Amino acid sequence: MDFVKFFKNRRSSQETLLNSINRDKIPQHVAIIMDGNGRWAQKRGLPRYAGHKAGVEALKDIVKACIELNIKILSVFAFSTENWKRPKEEVSILMDLLTKYLASEKDDLHKNGVKINCIGSLDKLPESAQNEIAKAYVLTKDNQKLILNIALNYGGRLEIIEAAKKLAVNICEGRMKIDEITEEIFSSFLFTNGQPDPDLLIRPSGEMRLSNFYLWQTAYTELYVSSVLWPDFRKNNLLEAIIDYQNRDRRFGGIKK
Ligand code: FPP
């Protein structure tokens, strides 16, 4: 393969994509279901973990691109409450990758103004992962350039049940009245408390489902499905998704002005 030609072509297609982006309509919050790692590995005759490892490289590239594009929040679905059903070795490799990612990337992410915010039932994760999550959080908690929400042992239904339970406790203990519950109040009991809902949700690998991700938060999110498998997903693919998003007509249930 002629690599010089390959990189020249990629650069020029990126320039074309960047020229098509409307800088005044950049989505504030982008969410991604990082899917297709297993298929990526299978296509190459590699073990599944090789796909997850390559998925980490895609994540690094997309975080960088989000910073460059001035996206304010990036949410990535890394491990669902259902993913415990996978073989033990795969679960342990995923936990290991996450721990190593946080340990090796947190200083760089911190320098670049990224706040690392892991969300989900984190107390069920291995202790080594919990320690790295805590260290990354403490180091980066005041950063404001980009919030990186990493969903781990996260399930949208569980999140809603947990919010309902907390509300019930508040009501039973007399701190709140039933009539005071509004969408805003309910949202404040979710992991994404204080953050705007995602404007754009990207699902690589062609699957067209939410898989229990951000069930509450995606009520009016624009969905974009890409056939590219997550380990191959790069800045150009993100730019394509954003251009598509910028051509949508978001009415939020209203009518066009
Ligand atoms: C889904 O693809 C992917 C996952 C369950 C794991 C995602 C994890 C990473 C990208 C790497 C680790 C994360 C961090 C935050 C460092 P799949 O395995 O279900 O793919 P398939 O549908 O092709 O089998």
Mean pLDDT: 96
Largest sheet: 6 strands, parallel
Structural class: alpha/beta
Percentage of residues in DSSP E strands: 5-15%
Bound compounds: farnesyl diphosphate
Ranges where pLDDT stays below 50 over 5 or more residues in a row are none
Q: Quick one: overall form? A: globular
Total strand segments: 6
Task: Please provide the ordered H/E string of secondary-structure elements.
Answer: HEHHEHEHEHHEEH
**Distance, first to last CA:** 51 Å
Q: How much helix, percentage-wise, in residues? A: 40-55%
Helix count equals 8
- Strand order across the biggest sheet? 3-4-2-1-5-6
Q: What radius of gyration results from the CA coordinates?
A: 19 Å
Overall description:
There is one protein chain. The chain has 257 residues and is α/β, with parallel strands linked by helices. It has a domain of 61 residues. Strand 3, helix 5 and strand 4 form a beta-alpha-beta unit. Helix 4 runs parallel beside helix 5. 32% of the residues are buried. The protein binds farnesyl diphosphate.
